[in-house]
């Protein structure tokens, strides 16, 4: 991946992937509702700035339960992301079960119009996104 780091915080690094024209989110550490919501809003800002339509959201290095942020994501954030131009969202699950449950909650309850797929590893998630 040819990445340019656009944002780097304790729980999230957001990069622009030149080769694929998408934003790559590398979440890390123990997430909570506050860190998830702050990172999501930063994604929204950068998606508008870079005019991307695709996001590769990697939770491989994530732990924690963030159910309230997941509900906010499905009801508030994903519709805003759609308005900002996102059309395809590829989500790599954390190997940690509580984080997976939070991610599933966010994905299953949104009606934002974004094509969202979940995966167990980054390579498969990237391959799907490349076909979109």
Number of strands: 6
CATH class: Alpha Beta
Strand and helix order: EEEHEHEHEH
Number of domain units: 1
Query: What share of residues is helical?
Result: 40-55%
* pLDDT averaged over residues: 89
Which stretches are low in confidence, meaning pLDDT under 50 for 5 or more residues running?
none
- Structural class computed from helices and strand pairing: alpha/beta
CATH-assigned fold name: Rossmann fold
Distance between the termini: 17 Å
Q: Beta-strand percentage?
A: 25-35%
Please work out how many helical segments DSSP would assign. 4
Q: What strand line-up does the widest sheet have?
A: 1-2-3-4-5-6
| CATH architecture descriptor name | 3-Layer(aba) Sandwich
Write structural notes for this entry.
By secondary structure, this protein is of the alpha/beta class. The longest helix is centred in the N-terminal third of the chain and has 18 residues, at 33-50. Strands 1-2-3-4-5-6 form a 6-stranded mixed sheet, sandwiched between helices. It has one domain (3-131): 3-Layer(aba) Sandwich (Rossmann fold), CATH 3.40.50. Helix 1 links the parallel strand 3 (22-30) and strand 4 (54-63). Helix 1 packs parallel to helix 2. The protein has helices spanning 33-50, 67-83, 97-108, 122-131, and strands at residues 3-9, 12-17, 22-30, 54-63, 88-92, 115-119. The model has no long low-confidence stretch (mean pLDDT 89). The chain is built from 4 helices and 6 strands; from the N terminus they run βββαβαβαβα.
């Amino acid at each position: 991946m040819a990445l340019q780091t656009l944002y780097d915080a304790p729980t999230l690094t957001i990069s622009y992937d030149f080769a694929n024209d998408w934003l790559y989110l590398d979440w890390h550490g123990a997430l909570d509702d506050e860190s998830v919501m702050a990172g999501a809003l930063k994604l929204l800002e950068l998606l508008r700035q870079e005019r991307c339509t695709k996001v590769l959201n990697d939770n491989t290095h994530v732990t924690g339960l963030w159910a309230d942020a997941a509900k906010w994501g499905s009801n508030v954030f994903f519709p805003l992301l759609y308005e900002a131009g996102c059309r395809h969202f590829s989500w790599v699950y954390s190997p940690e079960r509580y984080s997976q449950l939070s991610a599933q909650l966010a994905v299953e309850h949104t009606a934002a119009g974004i094509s969202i797929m979940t995966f167990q590893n980054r390579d498969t998630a990237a391959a799907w996104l490349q076909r979109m």
